[in-house]
Amino acid sequence: MKKYSSGLVSEAFWFIEFKKMVIMRHQGCTWDEIRELYVEQNMLAMPRKQRAMRIYGYLKGRVETLDSEISEIFINSDLQTQKTVNIISIALKNRLFYEFLYEVYREKIQTGASEIKHSDIDSFFRKKQEQDKTVGAWTEHTFKRLKGAYFTLLTESGLLKTQGNKKMINPPVLDESLEAYLIKSGSKQLLKALTGVDI
User: Fold this and answer.
1) Number of domains observed in the structure of the chain
2) Calpha distance 155→124 (Å, rounded)
3) pLDDT digit of tens for each residue in the chain (199 aa)?
4) Which are the contacts of 7, defined by CB distance < 8 A and separation ≥ 6?
5) Is the dihedral of CA 182, 183, 186, 189 positive or negative?
6) CA-CA distances (angstroms) from residue 40 to 27, 51, 64?
7) Structure-derived torsion over alpha carbons of residues 168, 169, 172, 173, reported in degrees to the nearest 10
8) For position 73, which CATH number holds?
9) Residue 22, exposed/middle/buried by CB under 10 A (0-12, 13-18, 19+)?
10) Lower CB density within 10 Å: C or N end of the chain?
């Protein structure tokens, strides 16, 4: 089982950059070729090479969670499905975020709640602090940054919609091919986490 990580404080949704990398891999580009573009030629337009390397590493990790079948689905799907695949890759890389989707987002859908509040995320983090020593050692500043990252990722993926100061729940209507893939690949729990629907 993966260890809990607060790494999402350093990440963003990076949809355009993720999409380009998925397409390049699907077209047969090697990781060396992609690294050359992203880092050496600074396709990410980062002010420092070290930052470009880190972002390249984060994106590479996401893309590596995808097999050829879901990559094909991604390339041939609409914008919302592509954003959903990106959030799936983030969840597959980060255990804590995955569990947040399943334990909080899914439950909110199932209970008919209309929004996710700051207190919902705070409560989730407190529970994890009590359950895990690693999470228990994190500072309040880390949790504040993580909460901001979660809201940003969920909003940019379309899973939340901003309405004034509220973050309204907006479950995705999954493309049939993506839904079938998640079921076939043994990812029913992730499907439930995103849609709230028990399969």
Assistant:
1) 1
2) 18
3) 789 999 999 999 999 999 999 999 999 999 999 999 999 998 888 889 999 999 999 999 999 999 999 999 999 999 999 999 999 999 999 999 999 999 999 999 999 999 999 999 999 999 999 999 999 999 999 999 999 999 999 999 999 999 999 999 999 999 999 999 999 999 999 999 999 988 6
4) 58, 94
5) positive
6) 20, 12, 21
7) -90
8) 1.10.3540.10
9) buried
10) N
Residue matched to tokens 């070290």: 50
pLDDT of res. 72: 96
Residue 161 domain flag:
yes
The range of the structural domain enclosing residue 155 comes to 8-195
Asked if the structure places residue 1 within a domain, the reply is no
**Torsion angles phi and psi, residue 146, rounded to 5:** -65, -40
Both tokens assigned to 18: 């993720």
Q: Is residue 2 part of a domain?
A: no
